[in-house]
Amino acid sequence: MSFGGFGAPIAGDEFDVATLSVDAKKRLNALKNLDIEHSKIHRQFLAELAALEKKYHTQYQPLFDKRADIVNGEYEPTEAETKVPETVEDYTELTTEDGQAVQEGPVKGIPDFWLQALLNHTHIGSTITEQDREALKALKDIKVSYLADNPGFSLEFVFGDNDYFTNTTLTKTYYLSEPDATTDDDEYVFDRTEATTINWKEGKDLSVKVEMRKQRHKESNKTRVIKRTVPAETFFNFFKSQSLPNPDDETAEDVDFDELENQLEFDYQIGEEFKDRIVPQALQFFTGEASMDDDEDFDFDDEEGFSGEEDDSEEDDE
To answer: Listing from the earlier edge strand, what are the strands of the sheet with 313-316?
Structure first.
């Protein structure tokens, strides 16, 4: 069977470009040059798109700042500011169902705004443990900023006083690599992340848990209790710096690069989700109005999560 006059056999996986005629291969080279030209234009598009995102982010930010003031009770909206257009649902007209309790008494701001918004995100909510909830009650704001010298971005989580760590902000920065101008590659490539080290208060580290087990001495037959520190699942494992090691590095011999690349891709998707949906649509996530269908479009493995550290340590009770 021939196709397009090339005289090359085409039978699914058996097709090999090398079997084409020289004239056909030259034409493929011409097509490759067109692809390279397209990539040059697309790289220009990406650069202008990034600049446009930064430009409009500066216009969004005052709105986000005012939102944070309202949420945290630092600004009380005027009567005029609480009126919504007739075509928009008025939250003050919502009624409770049987058995639902209404919050009574004076309330500062909107309690647990960001905690509830994150819990209402299908995938991120699944990474939040019961202990995480107590720490995330202190989350006051999530801010997005763009990097001046890189097409990446940064997420800043602002916290009030809490029983778990002393940090007032936890930051996760995503660095991207520019497309290679010498090839037809026209997309930004994930490079690495850099995250704040969490200063846990004594006995409050949510990223580890202590397991107790008995150990018997072979000679004396006496037993002792061993404390073993092991990784724990927690939302706060999100704040880890990650990058792909150099494949030529001796320490990378035991690295499963496919698995690590999947983890980094998952991590980057989380960052994009915060930047593109959760921060701008925080109200809709808090109320539950954010579309579940949109969540289903988010490319996650249901079993994926923020993994803990692999290292563990032991200490005895003696």
So the answer is: 208-216, 223-231, 313-316
Angstrom distance (rounded) from CA 309 to CA 307: 7
Task: Provide the mean pLDDT of the chain.
Answer: 83
Burial bucket for residue 278 (CB in 10 Å: 0-12, 13-18, 19+): buried
Identify the structural domains of the chain with CATH numbers, from first to last.
21-81+109-202+234-245+256-294 (3.30.1120.90)
Residue 78: both structure tokens together = 């005027």
What pLDDT is recorded for position 3? 34
pLDDT at residue 13, rounded to an integer: 67
| Dist. CA 209–CA 229, nearest whole Å | 6
- Cα–Cα distance between 69 and 113 in angstroms, integer? 12
Alpha-carbon gap, residue 31 to 36, rounded angstroms:
9
User: Which residues are CB-contacts of 299 (< 8 A; sequence separation ≥ 6)?
Assistant: 269
pLDDT of residue 32: 92
Is residue 297 within 8 Å of residue 272, measured between CB atoms?
no
The closest alpha carbon to 279, from 124, 78, 92, belongs to: 124
Q: Say which amino acid occupies 263.
A: Q
pTM of the full predicted structure? Answer: 0.79
pLDDT at 161 over 80: yes
Query: In 57-196, where do the E strands start and end?
Result: 139-146, 153-159, 169-177, 189-195
**For 313, phi and psi rounded to 5 degrees?**
-140, 160
Place of tokens 């005052």: 62
Q: In the numeric block, which tokens belong to residue 183?
A: 């090839």
Task: Compute the residue count for the chain.
Answer: 318
| Nearest residue to 60 via CA among 283, 288, 279 | 279
Query: Which H or E element spans position 25?
Result: helix 22-71
